[in-house]
Amino acid sequence: MLPSSELPAVAGILSGAQCRETAVSIAATQESSGAIPWSPTGHTDPWDHVECAMALTAAGLLEPARRAFEWCRSEQRPDGSWPIQYRAGVIEDANSDTNFCAYIATGVWHHVLCTGDDAFAELMWPMVASAIDFVVDLQLPGGEICWAQSPSGPLKEALLTGSASIYHSMRCAVALANHLGREQPEWEVALGRLGHAIATHPDAFTEKPHHSMDWYYPILGGALRGQQAEDRIEARWSDFVVQGLGIRCVDDRPWVTGAETCELVLALDTMNDRDRALEQFANMQHLRERDGSYWTGLVYADGKRWPVERTTWTGAAVILAADALSDATPGAAIFRDETLPRGLENDFDCECVTVES
């Protein structure tokens, strides 16, 4: 176990020891299979499971992190996908969410960056390759990605947040491929088409403008940078940011949430907006519990926790935000790293269309 001095820590806000407490609270929720559910009685989904594995990696808890990745290997279906939701090992939703499936590439690449373990990279490569092939097969003519696959076929609706997250995951997948000498030019083309669509054809996506994730995810995922990113953040800042508490999950409700606030911190970090990133990271700490776990959110109109649960993925977002702000690990810059491949988005102009679901 790493000493506290080597763990993600943000002076005056979160200590290394507190970071460890949060990581331990996540590991304590891990099931014997390696799955990491939302809470001790909650369900598991592949995206949040991988986010938790990343946090465990950043905090130096490598054994439970690797058990989490082994769970992904054991549960992957022949087509490269995973079910959307499990509970206590039983599949509750057998459909496949493309964003959930793509995120394994982010988790594996992050683990390789943090540990330098090429044997792990080789072991996980077939899983990542199969997952990204599954996702690329669901790309629409305009570059956007169908959000899900059901037994009856693709759900031909592309969600902005999901596609923005997929964009980052595909960048990580291409980086992993290049690292292992297994170049994937078809992924690079698909990546470029997706980035082009997000940056220049937002009408190709089903947007949920009331949700904060649609606001910052195109920045967090790396599709928007520079002035585009700054303009997007400023346009909705007052709609989502609540002074002293963090950010709303939904713009018309008096509800702040910790994970979304920490993801905004990561997005601001990609913009080098350190002062506001630190401020928001400090503001959400009211959700911390004594054991290091974090409540999901607060309805500030009446001061009540809601939902009444402490979620592993909220704690995971805290650890990853702390790492980005402190540059404690070699994976700290994974969301802002401009060395990640960006695909071939400047080499073509695709026909971007809105596809009816």
Automatic annotation (TrEMBL):
Superkingdom assignment: Bacteria
Keyword annotations of the record: Transferase
UniProt-listed GO biological process terms: carbohydrate metabolic process
GO MF entry, a single one: transferase activity
Protein's name according to its UniProt entry: Prenyltransferase
Source organism of this protein record: Mycolicibacterium confluentis
